[in-house]
Amino acid sequence: IVETCYRKGLVRVLTATSTLAAGVNLPARRVIFRQPRIGRDFIDGTRYRQMAGRAGRTGIDTKGESILVCRPEEVKRITGIVRSDCPPLQSCLSEDKNGMTHAIMEVVAGGIVQTASDIHRYVRCTLLNSTKSFDDVVKSAQDSLRWLCHKRFVEWNNDTKIYSTTPLGRASFGSSLNPEESLVVLDDLSRAREGFVLASDLHLVYLVTPINVEVEPDWELYYERFMQLSSLEQSVGNRVGVTEPFLMHMAHGAAMPIRGRPKKNTSGGSGANTLINDQSLRVSKRFYVALMISRLAQEIPVTDVCESFKVARGTIQALQENAGRFASMVSAFCQRLGWQDLEGLVAKFQNRVSFGVRAEIAELTTIPFVKGSRARALYNSGLRTPVTIAEASIPEIAKALFENSWSGQDDSGLRRMQFGIAKKIKNGARRIVLEEAEAARVAAFSAFKSLGVEVPQFTTPLLPASEDSPPRDVMVFPGAGHAKCHESVLGAHVGDERNICSDYVPQRASTEIVGEDMHPVSTIHIKESQGIANSVNIASMQEASPLSTLPSRNVADKGPVNAHNFPGGFDGFLDQWSSVDEFSFDLHFVKRSSKLSLTIFEILGLAVCWENSPVYYCNFPKDLTPTGSNDSVELWEGFRKRWSRIVGIMQQKSVKKTTWNLKNQIQALKSPCVSCQRLARLHLDPKTLNNIEVLDSTYVLLPPISVYNGLDICLVAWILWPDEESKTVPNLEKLVKRRLPSEAAAAANRDGRWRNQMHKAAHNGCCRRAVQTRALGSVLLKLLVSQNLSDLIETVEGPLVNVLADMELWGIGADMDACLRARHIIITRLKELDKEAYKLAGKSFSLNANADIADILFTHLKLPVPKGCEKGKLHPSTDKQCLDHLRDLHPIVSVIKEHRTLAKLLNGTLGSICSRAKLCIQSQRYIIHGNWLQTSTATGRLSMEEPNLQSVEHMVDFTTRKNDKDFTSMSMVDHHEINAREFFVPTQENWLLVTADYSQIELRFMAHFSKDPVLIELLSKPDVDVFTMIASRWSGKEESLVSSKDRDNTKRFIYGILYGMGANSLAEQLECSPAEAAQKIQSFKRFFPGVSSWLQQAVASCRQKGYIETLMGRRRFLSKITAGNSREKAQAQRQAVNSICQGSAADIIKVAMLKVHSVITNGSNTVDSMDGLMQNFSQIRGRCHLLLQVHDELVLEVDPSMVADAVNLLQISMETAASLLVPLRAKVKVGKTWGSLQPFRPEP
Question: Which of 191, 244, 672, 688 has the most CB atoms less than 10 A away?
């Protein structure tokens, strides 16, 4: 259209981007360039002439001019480009362009070249023959033919002396794939036929993803997304050649690892390694694109995929379009090879890739004007095939497509537009149906004719003459009355007065109220398991009721129900909800940031369900507002009363409440807010109504809710399978698929899915989660009881969620000014180290790249590679252990170590403070709010992220030069000591930090479990240095003669024994020979015979049971201790001993946290109210906050007047957390910052 208008003179000026301008072939009188750049690149002569050449086209115009706008300093460069000669043409058949092979393949397949003389005739017609000698061109063509014959694309017939194509060659030619691509596709498809993963779409998506993609992955993000995949999807990656080690290397910026499948008949060498690396890189990039396309095929919005993979929207759409085209090429390839099995799969998948839809709606996308979103809307409304759409009325199609904008204005322009689109879709569906019918008729008649049967022909064709012929539908508008509905499968007449299209779909009608006669499809009964297993197969314990005895319509068919539709209204729903003994819930809320840097939790609704009930959705702004009154005071009082009833229900201690992600919901319910805009009907006025607190002039703050007896199903799964669940990010969907039978998982998804999915999309997630939580709870809680693990979660892990929620909300203060000063000093020192390293090495290199460091140390400086540092890598290791071996051989080693230490501090702790700290307007202090992870370790330890404050560095000291020109004068040097913990301060002005750290906690557990009398005696003595005493007893020296080095070596040795280290590892730790280390191990076992015996018993018990148990009954399953190889067995033995002590230490620090938290808060959300502690320390409440837990250490902030009480509370809580054979000791320190703590000394 544009070209026609332009040629006719209707359009006189065209404005286009450089990309479009280079491709549009329209002559012009004048061409204007607004700048001499295309993107960031300066224009070259070829592209300039291509675009400027349309001006004054010969034979069309008499003259033309080209104008280029540029800066004065660019004139000289532009002049050179304009006056430069055209670059010589080069043939694409040259060897470096790989074109000859493709060309020969095409001419042989097309029948142009069949004999040797044909090759001579063909190459004489090529541009390559004009630029190279004829013999060289013929040789290149013959080499290509030999390669094609060798790869089975072409074959030579010795009898006829003719070249012909093989099925592979015909498949390559017919699919438009070049030979190199054809080999890759053939290899992928061949392996897929041997082991195709049909349980996931990812394998099929990979096969239709173009082989060579131009997308450069963010490797760190790629690795993160790969690790988030399910085990099934990761197995797809492994099957096609994507490995976790390769992605890890790329994510860490390391050089490419030499990994790949072993190949036959290949010699070692850099060429083979490069080939393997290139192949791994190509496969990994292709799989990365496949991950994006697979998400689109699951109907995840393009914007979400762009955000998840940090890719531009245009890139995603281009990849999707290319994948659709490539799918058709792969389908044609399979067809020519005669692989009908794969051809059918790929052909059906093409629409899914092109339109980004799931399998169930792919058929609908074949209808004109129907793409992903419209196909989903039609499907959800029950119009699931072209046939049903062709039979449906236009109003029904329009209502399905435009549910949200459907109104009662019959003559509106919007309605006419909607009917017009619906009409086009209906006509398109009718045409598809009629074409299929016509094809079936022709096939049937052909079959009859082949049998000799005469069949009369139709006088008129089945297909209509025009797509726009008026349909024979009757449009029914509101007020026209309702027709009788047909009988449903239950034999009942069900009326539906909710929409104008109910007349056309009587059997899809439904009600909003659940009747008494409706029952769940099946009931799952769990038999108590006998014995212990590392993994429980839930599916084997399911007993489902026979479907034949159940009605065909039940609760599961209904999906969620609005709470206000309950019999008796919303108050009737609250009455029923308050009477149940156990329920599952999920809060629908949005976390927002206010203008005053406050975190606001806007609550929108709540999904609730209990045994044999549908899931009810409470829309807070709507359902809590009473009806029947316009008085704002009465409406607000009614709102408050209903909210108070919900508060009472959620705070019932006798009622068990299960949910998912309880911690975040607790935080939202501590300060719940509702948008004033959503409460517009109440006409709220804080001046006239009492007890209304408005935040940020936008949100009404409601009374808080404390969730008593709440249980997070995520914790239950983690307690049952600690190693499995700690390796992945908690995901409810994956847990349902992994731990429930497929029937139960499908039923839970149905129960939580709204009938009108598009309309209810805003809160469908919480309804689904509530039902899935109920389904998981009915199974996992019984397993928890059968494994005797219920006490652990009820007394420790469950109540701890409240503690972690408060710690996250409160945060910890940060001294931003001091942090920025330290950051500036470190950056200065890093620049100095760069200069020193370059001077010492004699050449420039990157101190941040391990490959560069290895090259400098071992290739350029010729330093010897330490033993054990040369295996299994592209370059020798440059880790801390390796550098320690080299520290005396060259001064550059100390520079590298210092650079690493400071770079880690700069990018880690200081970077986290600068990026995560937020200014609190109220206190005018910067505060960091981290995220506590309760299920990320198999031993029970807590961890932290965003940022991780459990690994903050201690003191780092270094020097910087005042004058870079003076390298000798020591007087020009500044000494710096940076302690990153100095930057963490209380959140309140003038408050102090108080910390308490367990002394030798794991050693004390070793003494308790081993019952070794010598160790118990040593640890029972108060106020002594335990490791000095052990070193003295062990070596026979007086305590005063034990050096600090002897003490430190003893400490390292004991913890090495505890962690299961062997003689070699201990030798490295103690800097002695393996023989000496082995001798020390035997001496230790003789001196502490109880410990030696316990170590053996712990391993033997784990072998027998398959798991270890901590002090409080926590279990860790170690199946590899009996079923693994020698290395895995040795690792499991070390884990068995370590997990007992480390897990027990994690248990008691959590108990101490609960005790402290119960005192400094109201304490009523814990199982044991600890009345004695609360009464003795009631004065400290509100004047002390728990900030951090660093493994065996607790960090609190305290009002200075309450320091002595806080110290007593900490010591009592920590030292009485468990009863052991040896006393627990807690060392307490106090200071203004975390890095300036001093031992607490009570005032006399």
Answer: 672
